[in-house]
């Protein structure tokens, strides 16, 4: 019975009061939804701006990378054309020069022993000519020296440019002359001593 009475009271409320409450609830819900929607729109706008900045940076980086790639590609293309041109023109020329160099080297290897023997002969001739020139110079110097100096070098030194026979002859002659001179000097001294001891007068009565 109580439930039936309450339902009757609820139904008996005026339609105007019911419509006012429902409008207030709807308006608060709409305001909350609008606030949420505006916040989300602000967030979306901030994210879109950030995404736009990132996209602009990425686009500028992409353009720089693209320009670098284009430059690298153009440089690679130029280098490729140069390499092809070199392979077509310079490589055959280099090969021909290498072939010529190998031929020259083979010819030099064949003629090298002959050249070495000729160089050895030239060296021997040069050494002999140098020795002869030195000998000639020493002989000329020897001939330009005085007789006494030549005599002294021949007897007392080994640097005189004369034969050993002539050196032996000169030394024997010098020894013989020296012995004779010493002997004569000794006779002179002994004669003078005897004259002095016997008190002989110098002159005609001098004993010999």
Euclidean distance between termini CA atoms: 210 Å
| Proportion of residues in β-strands | under 5%
Enumerate how many helices there are, as a single number.
4
Low-confidence stretches: 1-18, 203-208
Report the strand count: 0
Provide the succession of SSEs: HHHH
> What summary fits the major beta sheet?
none
Radius of gyration: 68 Å
Q: What structural class do the secondary elements suggest? A: mainly alpha
Identify the overall geometry: elongated
* Helix content percent band: over 70%
- Mean pLDDT across every amino acid position: 78
Number of domains: 2
Keywords: Membrane, Transmembrane, Transmembrane helix
Transmembrane segments: 168-189
Explain what you see.
The protein has about 210 residues and is an all-alpha fold. It is built from 4 helices and no strands. The protein has 2 domains: about 20-115; about 145-208, no CATH class. It has helices at about 1-10, 15-145, 145-155, 165-200. Helix 3 crosses helix 4. About 0% of the residues are buried.
Give short descriptive properties of this protein:
disordered N terminus; mainly alpha; transmembrane; 208 residues; membrane; 2 domains; transmembrane helix
């Amino acid at each position: 019975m109580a439930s039936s009475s309450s339902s009757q009271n609820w139904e008996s409320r005026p339609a105007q009061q019911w419509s006012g409450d429902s409008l207030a609830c709807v308006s608060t819900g709409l305001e909350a939804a609008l606030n949420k929607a505006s916040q989300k729109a602000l967030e979306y706008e901030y994210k879109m701006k950030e995404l736009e900045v990132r996209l602009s940076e990425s686009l500028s980086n992409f353009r720089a990378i693209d320009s670098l790639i284009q430059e690298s590609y153009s440089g690679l293309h130029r280098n490729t054309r140069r390499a092809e041109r070199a392979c077509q023109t310079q490589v055959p020329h280099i090969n021909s020069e290498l072939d010529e160099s190998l031929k020259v080297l083979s010819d030099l290897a064949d003629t090298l022993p002959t050249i070495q023997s000729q160089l050895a002969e030239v060296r021997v001739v040069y050494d002999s000519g140098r020795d002869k020139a030195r000998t000639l110079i020493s002989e000329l110097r020897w001939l330009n020296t005085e007789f006494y100096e030549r005599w002294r070098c021949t007897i007392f030194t080994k640097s005189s440019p004369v034969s050993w026979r002539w050196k032996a002859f000169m030394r024997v002659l010098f020894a013989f002359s020296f012995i004779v001179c010493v002997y004569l000097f000794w006779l002179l001294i002994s004669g003078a001593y005897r004259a002095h001891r016997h008190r002989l007068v110098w002159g005609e009565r001098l004993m010999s």
